[in-house]
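Q: I'm teaching a short session on how sequence maps to structure, and I want students to see two examples side by side rather than one. Could you give me a first protein with its sequence written out and its structure tokens following it? Keep the formatting plain so it prints cleanly on a handout.
A: Of course. Example one:
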Amino acid sequence: MTTAAAKRPQLAHLTAQLDDLRERGTFFKLRVLDDQQAPVCTYDGKRVINLASNNYLGLCNHPKLEEAAIAATKKYGVGSGAVRTIAGTMHIHMELEEKIAAFKGVEACVVFQSGFAANAGTVSSILGKEDFILSDELNHASIIDGARLSKAKIKVFRHKDIAHAEQLLQEVQNEPGRKLLITDGVFSMDGDIGPVDKLADLCEKYGAIMMVDDAHASGVLGRNGRGSVDHFHATDKVDVQVGTLSKAIGALGGYVCGSRDLIDYLYHRARPFLFSTSHPPSVAATCIAAFDILENEPDRIQRLWDNTAYFKQQLTDAGFDVGGNTTPKSETPITPIIIGDGRRTMDFSRALFDAGVMATGIAFPTVPEGKARIRTIMTSEHTREQIDQALETFRSVARKTGLLQS
């Protein structure tokens, strides 16, 4: 039955845009998870091999994390009751920040409600309209939004192009204002690794602030998952490290690491921190337990990389484009299967789901027109049998839909 509100014309422009998505074949409905986030789980009542989750190390349902969450809930309750700067800072929040700072080898850390809030809140608070931001053209949307909110002048350098980044630094080096260079540690759509070491050297040369978003590198690259900055031995050259607690860590949130002054400044000026209620104590306890596991179970990261290498090679051998032709080459557990056309990509994703594999189609505007892809993410907890079954499904569905020749 049509409601009275649905007939109102004020939001008709949204309906028109949704109709356009349907016409393009890129409209989607949310898949609903019926059980735990796992290598094999149930979405919309269907049992599928899950290749769409950011649960790199299988920590979303690790017993030690579950126990930590339950114990913290019993001790501290389910919520903090306030923002951090008023009455919502609990001892467990400070313990988590100290844990992350020690893990990363820096002076201090502040935890945000999400990785998006960490990026956007940091960039927008430490710069102003007289400053300059130099950003890789494929940086995450949260970096782009933070740059816009800062009102700083934005210069975009070609993806991983060191020479172009230096050219832009040279152009602005004599301009008044601070200069901030930002890159992703791992780029979320193509799975390639940012040249953190070389960009950090440029920042040293030109006196720019160096910032790295390590969301998809946290728990994946570096010693025990310390991230791309550690991977490149660049901790002393990177001024601002952003990470996530929502992917390999298995819970929720984001964080910023750096000097004590940086973190104290963000306590005072980062708007998402100032105006958002702090994490439930169960989430903070879960994250603390996750960092303990990173330190004590390095075999999880090794399994992740072993599974990734096998999966990539098998896809390549089957004839799929997993990057490196018209897109950057994947170097991490994020493995895109490039198809190009948006409609064809979404149709392939739906066919895979019907055949028992959850692998998300991603099209414009998340990626440029003509570069739509199925984005897959491997985890440490997928078994070889599950991977082989998923690979056979990819091959079979691709042959049926004409993406691969029989």
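Q: Perfect. Now a second example for contrast.
A: Example two:
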Amino acid sequence: MTEAGKEFNELSADTQDASNTPQERREKVFHFFSELHEDIANHILLFIADAPLEQSTERGNKNALSSLTHIVPLVNKTFQDMSSTDFFWKESLLRQLNRDDSQRYHWQSGLRQLLPKGTELSLEADKLDTVLQETKEKCYKDLYRRIMTTYIQGQYPIFIMPCQLRLGEAYGLHLFEPRYRIMVRDILESSGNYNAATEQAGADLSSEEDGRKPPLLIHACLGGRLSPGEYACLVQLVHCTLYDYGTADVMLLPISWVRMDKLWVRPSSGDLFYAKATRV
């Protein structure tokens, strides 16, 4: 905001009435504008914003610059430049990692998954640079985005059946509906576990070897119609036995509660719902 303040002062001097002397224009400049808090400075800029021709009408200056088309874009550009710097993203990541609620666990787990096995997770500012290097990300903005898109948020198919679930307590199901046959095949193929599930009965799908990922889906324990904003359970498919025609016996492990932010139905799937969800 310092640069924005400087340019604001310069533009303010240029947009004064042409009849003013240079000394008079300097006296009307608020030299401490750049020292104000960002929120106050932005509020001032927006409050005094003039539309094109508005100044020339009021002050008789045909060459006056519109603050709405010159100052406000400057504020936006300054904010965009600031939001791209690593300093702010590093501090944002540190705040997420050291939160005082359950979200702290999700951010720490997401970062830990990106680190090589055996790497110590440091939550101190002076040691976070080493963590960044271990993840092989170029900057903190990329690291923040990767944790968000690979762990905190995701898109998953939804299994719908009223029941009581507890995190960490596995349970078994027999899936036979056409939409859930599609669901099982989809998550097995996308996670790289399809061959393992077809080669042996009750295959263990928790291994991450050979590029495989844990197959995940959402279990919505709701009796009514799904709606955005409702909560459900993210579960991991840990064991699976596939039968003819795609039916399956599965063992599921609840790992996190999620909020379903967006819902849609997969075409030609017999009402197989998908959700974009956020861990809570």
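Q: What should students look for in example two?
A: Point them to this: The chain has three domains: 2-83, 89-152, 154-279. Also worth mentioning: The first strand starts at residue 153 and ends at 160.
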